[in-house]
Design a protein that fits this description.
With about 475 residues, the chain is an alpha/beta fold. The protein is built from 13 helices and 24 strands. The strands form 6 sheets. It has a 9-stranded mixed beta sheet, sandwiched between helices. It has a 4-stranded parallel beta sheet with strand order 4-3-5-6, sandwiched between helices.
Length: about 475
């Protein structure tokens, strides 16, 4: 066995066209482990590359916490993450060393050795320190234990019926839960081959389906939206077993177009850096648009109103989602006050996300409490429902909704859309025909594009500046 985190066997990895066998990965990662043994924490310049996989696995073999560093991070963000995490070394490919920071170790310059037996590491030891997106301040470090990674991946393998017989395909960044934990450590634990396409382009996903037998595909909504706009590439995915969407809600129109083109109803799931994946649709279950499924085994969820009172599970009433799970983080790095604020007195994690839970336990994510819960004229309105309605208009390519100040209502529903050949009045009437009157936008702003982060999520605070 390579390590307690990984399966006893496994297929090869191909990352942006570069092959890496399991034996080569073991040998190169063992060399990294020997090089960094005894370091308190190491950072990895986490490009979408074989070197990133070698560096991360080397850190895990050595029992050294690994900090994936976004390769496009600016100097201030990079300095904050390196300093806050106390990273003693920075690992990466030759020629990729950013200016400043701790000593750089080019992992592809280390001599490849034979796989060494890893030293035992306690399940409670930190495997990764992942940093939040920093939308409400400097990014916060989230230590994830080895036991949490293993338990979280096992729960997903069960939910998605993920086995060594699958071939996972994705092109996601390797510095967060989706692309690294699920997308790299997941196939290593399940024993399935990985084809990383370098970039998550529809034509590359289609090629992996045709040429590599891709059976399990990961993407964020932006990826699936582009796939739905490329019928030829989408058709190539008909032979896949499962399409999985995460990191943001999948718009209902995209779900429906994908179903029509590929024959697949995508699996949606929900999670956070702090919780890993806690709620998911099942491979063998009914998958409904706009629904992220039910809690994974061992996971508890509840909804709370702003005053902490319980919210009914009627499928309509929104509330803040609270979570308990065996793979939950235990606290932010160096942030005791933020940690205390993140948990309720009885130990539930406050996700900050607004959800509605149906009587049968199915979850629907409405959005973030800070940006997607609109309080207008005494109503509590979820932005996601209005965004889905707008996206149902054939002229609308993208849509984002938020509450903006209103002298009488407190907040009004304001929509930002990317669209052609349609007026503000047309879109307001279109939504009013489909949703309750109080949910219709009172203002529609037309923009050339919506601001998005590396995961394709719309950065709504930037829209307020418009």
């Amino acid at each position: 066995m390579m390590d307690d985190l990984f399966g006893a066997e496994g297929g090869s990895l191909r990352i942006d066209g570069r092959e890496l066998s399991r034996d080569e990965l073991l040998g190169r990662a063992s060399a990294v482990a020997a090089e960094i043994a005894g370091a308190g924490t190491v950072a990895v310049h986490a490009t979408a590359s074989a070197e990133t996989v070698v560096a991360v696995v080397g850190g895990l073999l050595a029992g050294v916490p690994v900090v994936p560093l976004p390769p496009d991070s600016g100097p201030d963000e990079r300095a904050h993450i390196l300093g806050d995490s106390g990273s003693a070394l920075l690992l990466g490919a030759r020629g990729a060393a950013p200016d400043g920071g701790p000593p750089f170790v080019p992992v592809d310059a280390l001599p490849q050795g034979s796989a060494a037996a890893p030293a035992p590491v306690a399940p409670g030891a930190t495997a990764l320190i992942l940093y939040t997106s920093g939308t409400t301040g400097p990014p916060k470090g989230v230590p994830i234990s080895r036991g949490a990674v293993a338990a979280g991946l096992d729960a997903l393998a069960e939910a998605w019926e993920w086995t060594a017989g699958d071939v996972l395909v994705h092109g996601l960044p390797m510095f967060h839960v989706h692309g690294l934990v699920l997308g790299v450590l997941g196939p290593l634990r399940a024993g399935s081959p990985l084809v990383h396409t370098g970039r998550p382009r529809p034509d590359r996903y289609a090629a992996a389906a045709r040429d590599d037998g891709g059976s399990l595909f990961f993407g964020v909504p932006t990826v699936w939206s582009r796939m739905a706009d490329d019928p030829a590439s989408a058709e190539a995915l008909r032979g896949a077993r499962l399409l999985v969407s995460g990191s943001a809600p999948l718009p209902v129109p995209v779900f429906e177009r994908l179903h029509a083109l590929t024959g697949h109803r995508p699996v949606e799931r929900y999670g956070m850096t702090e919780t890993l994946i806690t709620v998911s649709a099942r491979a063998s279950g009914d998958r409904r648009p706009g629904c992220v499924g039910t809690p994974l085994p061992g996971v508890g969820t509840r909804l709370a109103a702003e005053d902490g009172a319980p919210v009914a599970r009627d499928g309509e009433t929104p509330g803040e989602l609270h979570v308990r799970a065996p793979f939950l983080f235990t606290g932010y790095l160096n942030r005791p006050e933020a940690t205390a604020a993140a948990f309720t007195p009885d130990g539930w994690f406050r996700t900050g996300d607004i959800a509605a839970i149906a009587p049968d336990g199915r979850h629907r994510i409405v959005g973030r409490a800070s940006t997607d819960l609109i309080k207008s004229g005494g109503y509590r309105i979820g932005a996601g429902e209005i965004e889905d309605a707008l996206l149902g208009h054939p002229a609308v390519r993208e849509a984002a909704v938020l509450g903006t100040p209103h002298a009488d209502l407190g907040e009004q529903v304001t929509a930002f859309v990317v669209a052609d050949g349609v007026t503000e009045g047309d879109l307001i009437a279109f939504v009013a025909e489909r949703l309750s009157a109080h949910k219709r936008p009172r203002a529609v702003r037309f923009v050339e594009e919506l601001p998005r982060n590396a995961m394709g999520k719309v950065v709504k605070p930037l829209l307020r500046d418009l």
